[in-house]
């Protein structure tokens, strides 16, 4: 995957992951809030709330319905009963059912009782199962109605005061319930255990809407009208607000909801903080490493920043990138290559500086030696009156002076030429020449000099080859290469000069079976100032010949390459492209 795509994928999936985590936490919070709401509704108004959350406590199987023991215990606690009816009104299962409750219902009969069109001793609630095979019938006689019945039956009015049974008064007090009796004119006649929720008068809404939607109000108001006396009996029971919410000490559902939302907000905030810390560390760690690495390179320290244990921060021991650095693998790999290249260049620069110092020292020696000879022979000639030199001796002195002068001139010319070539101050004087004849003349000039003692062989190409070259400069290249093969090998070594050609390229090859070169010599062969270590004569050559040859070759658009192995000889090849030659 490309760098851009990998960045998009990397940051995209991490953002998506963080969003999913937040959604999961939020979803969990709402599930927890719903669970708390169910608990709250069941304790506040079990008859309605319990049926509404029935699905959380029942399992419908083949031919039966099972309830959790927790739900059955809640039914018993609230003094209710439960029946499971099939579609025909038959009771399939029952729990805590009183003896006066039928075991079979006519659908129309049950509908009349549920809608209170016919009198029933119980308040009925229906719930349809999700499989639509069962109907749940929950019945409950509200305690408030039971208290009203007991008060009407067992209560007595003595000297204008209502006397209630002790057991009834105890139950009213325990439930913080109030009992009030109003005349047909709406005036309060009697009361017992009045609370802050008790009223001096009750409106139509209090006695109707409250009875139907009691969960909306703080109290549950039950009333009974006695048509014989015209009195209205009212019991006012506050809802149980002391509900223990799960993992919270909230006193109301609103407070519980606030606690849940605060908890969720804190969790999400902590998640974002942890994610930000993790993400910033994951992002800044490789970034700081790269910055530190670049700082090292900028100040000439060509190495990767290491750990305290002197190990690579970004790479494993097997050379692979560590996981947190893989996002920037192109950058880290490029920095590693750049570091290695700069380190190599630094080493080469130091080596070249060292070779230059050695070359300057050698050059000074090479200049001093012929100068000493020239000065010595010149002084001998000046002292001709003291020493009566013969004509032959004088000519010998002159030839030596000329030879040393020519060597010094060659040395200075080479130095001047290499700098002119390096600074592009040489313009080539191209001429069309036949390559076989051109190379043959260069080889013959060495063959005619028997002083070197090597065996030179020349192999021309079978057809004429014409190339455009600067004859003087290119002759210098060939002479330098052949001279090197002679100078750095023992007498009796065979040197082959050959020309090969294809449809696209021409090759001039100088091959010998001499002592060969070391790897260091091969690397530095075309460097200025470098001299081979196996030269027989210390002062022979300027150390610039092969550097000049490479510069001239490149100036012609050609290439020069060396192949060599110690003890197996050396092959130096100059190659031309098709543009520079014409085979006919």
Structural summary, described in words:
The chain is α+β, with helices and mostly antiparallel strands. It is 47% helix and 18% strand. It contains 15 helices and 20 strands. It has a five-stranded mixed sheet, covered by helices on one side. Strands 4-3-6-5 form a four-stranded antiparallel sheet, covered by helices on one side. It has a four-stranded antiparallel sheet with strand order 10-9-12-11, covered by helices on one side. A hairpin with a 6-residue loop joins β5 (123-128) and β6 (135-140). α13 runs antiparallel to α15. Residues 533-540 have low confidence and may be disordered.
Topology:
Blueprint: H1 3-44, H2 46-52, E1 58-61, E2 64-67, H3 69-77, E3 80-85, E4 91-95, H4 107-114, E5 123-128, E6 135-140, H5 143-154, E7 156-158, E8 161-163, H6 166-174, E9 178-182, E10 188-192, H7 204-207, H8 209-212, E11 219-226, E12 231-238, H9 253-298, H10 329-382, H11 391-422, E13 431-434, H12 435-447, E14 455-459, E15 465-469, H13 471-487, E16 494-501, E17 506-512, H14 519-524, H15 545-555, E18 559-564, E19 570-576, E20 581-583
Parallel strand pairs: 14-16
Antiparallel strand pairs: 1-2, 3-4, 3-6, 5-6, 7-8, 9-10, 9-12, 11-12, 13-15, 15-20, 16-17, 17-19, 18-19
């Amino acid at each position: 995957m490309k760098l851009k795509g990998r960045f998009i994928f990397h940051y995209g999936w991490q953002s998506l992951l963080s969003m999913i985590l937040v959604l999961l936490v939020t979803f969990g919070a709402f599930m927890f809030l719903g669970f708390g709401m169910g608990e709250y509704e069941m304790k506040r108004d079990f008859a309605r709330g319990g049926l509404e959350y029935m699905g959380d406590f029942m399992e419908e199987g083949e031919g039966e319905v099972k309830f959790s023991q927790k739900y059955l215990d809640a039914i018993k606690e609230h003094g209710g009963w439960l029946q499971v009816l099939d579609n025909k009104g038959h009771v399939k299962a029952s729990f805590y059912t009183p003896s006066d409750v039928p075991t079979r219902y006519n659908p129309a009969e049950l509908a009349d009782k549920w809608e209170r069109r016919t009198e029933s001793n119980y308040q009925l609630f229906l719930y349809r199962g999700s499989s639509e095979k069962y109907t749940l019938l929950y019945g409950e006689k509200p305690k408030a109605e039971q208290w009203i019945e007991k008060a009407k039956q067992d209560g007595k009015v003595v000297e204008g005061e209502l006397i209630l049974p002790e057991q009834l008064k105890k139950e009213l007090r325990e439930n913080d319930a109030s009992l009030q009796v109003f005349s047909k004119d709406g005036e309060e006649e009697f009361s017992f255990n009045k609370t802050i929720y008790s009223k001096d008068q009750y409106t139509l809404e209090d006695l109707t809407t409250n009875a139907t939607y009691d969960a909306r109000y703080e109290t549950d108001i039950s009333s009974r009208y006695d048509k014989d006396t015209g009195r209205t009996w009212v019991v006012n029971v506050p809802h149980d607000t002391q509900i223990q919410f799960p993992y919270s000490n909230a006193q109301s559902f609103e407070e519980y909801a606030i606690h849940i939302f605060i908890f969720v907000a804190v969790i999400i905030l902590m998640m974002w903080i942890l994610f930000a810390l993790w993400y910033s560390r994951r992002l800044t760690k490789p970034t700081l490493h790269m910055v530190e690495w670049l700082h090292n390179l900028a100040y000439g320290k060509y190495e990767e920043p290491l750990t305290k244990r002197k190990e690579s921060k970004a790479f494993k021991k097997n050379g692979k990138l560590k996981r947190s650095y893989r996002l920037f693998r192109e950058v880290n790999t490029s920095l590693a290559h750049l570091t290695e290249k700069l380190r190599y260049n630094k080493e080469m620069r130091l080596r070249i500086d060292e070779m230059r110092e050695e070359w300057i020292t050698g050059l000074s020696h090479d200049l001093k030696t012929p100068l000493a000879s020239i000065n010595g022979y010149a002084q001998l000639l000046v002292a001709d009156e003291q020493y009566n030199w013969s004509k032959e001796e004088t000519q010998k002195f002159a030839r030596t002076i000329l030879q040393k002068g020519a060597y010094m001139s060659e040395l200075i010319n080479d130095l001047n030429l290499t700098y002119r070539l390096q600074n592009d101050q040489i313009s080539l004087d191209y001429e069309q020449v036949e390559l076989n004849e051109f190379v043959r003349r260069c080889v013959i000039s060495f063959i005619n000099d028997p002083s070197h003692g090597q065996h030179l062989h020349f192999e021309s190409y079978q057809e004429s080859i014409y190339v455009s070259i600067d004859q003087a400069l290119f002759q210098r290249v060939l002479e330098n290469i052949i001279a090197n093969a002679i100078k750095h090998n023992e007498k009796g070594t065979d040197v082959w000069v050959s020309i090969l050609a294809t449809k696209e390229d021409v090759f001039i090859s100088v091959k010998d079976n001499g002592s060969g070169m070391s790897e260091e010599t091969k690397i530095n062969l075309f460097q200025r100032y470098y001299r081979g270590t196996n030269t027989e004569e210390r002062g022979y050559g300027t150390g610039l010949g092969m550097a000049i040859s490479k510069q001239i070759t490149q100036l012609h658009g050609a290439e020069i390459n060396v192949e060599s192995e110690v003890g197996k000889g050396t092959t130096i090849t100059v190659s031309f492209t098709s543009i520079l030659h014409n085979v006919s």
